[in-house]
């Protein structure tokens, strides 16, 4: 009799495990609203053009980098379609003709999801 109860318990536990796993697949959790994401717009306050890329935590929570972007002298460029987590810093890597690469941290303040944050570089 005890063996029959143990077998029934094992079957019930197995069915519950399968149901929980399938339930997780059928009803995925909603995305966390704790972190908003923003695009960055870089404005060049210099007479020489610059090229830049960004590295940081993206909208998927992964550490990654963007493609390269060009900013004309005294102009602005939005790093469109690249989204960075707000309330964090990203690495801003840039170069001007005749100089070596530089980098600095840019703090992306907490903001409304989908916003664009603007930064000036001299």
Give the count of structural domains. Answer: 2
Give the topology string: H per helix, E per strand: HEEEEEEEEE
What fold name stands as the CATH topology of the largest domain? Immunoglobulin-like
Summed up, the helix count is 1
* Overall helicity: 10-25%
Features:
122 residues, alpha+beta, Secreted protein, signal
Describe this structure in words.
By secondary structure, this protein is α+β, with helices and mostly antiparallel strands. It folds into 2 domains: 1-30; 37-121, Sandwich (Immunoglobulin-like), CATH 2.60.40. The protein has one helix at residues 2-26, and strands spanning 37-44, 50-57, 63-65, 69-71, 76-78, 84-85, 88-96, 102-108, 115-121. The longest helix is centred in the first third of the chain and has 25 residues, at 2-26. It is globular, with a radius of gyration of 24 Å. The protein starts with a helix and ends with a strand.
What topology emerges from the helices and strands here?
Layout (H helix, E strand, L loop, with lengths): L1 H25 L10 E8 L5 E8 L5 E3 L3 E3 L4 E3 L5 E2 L2 E9 L5 E7 L6 E7 L1
Parallel strand pairs: 1-9
Antiparallel strand pairs: 1-5, 1-6, 2-3, 2-4, 2-7, 7-8
Organism: Streptomyces roseirectus
Keywords: Signal
Protein name: Secreted protein
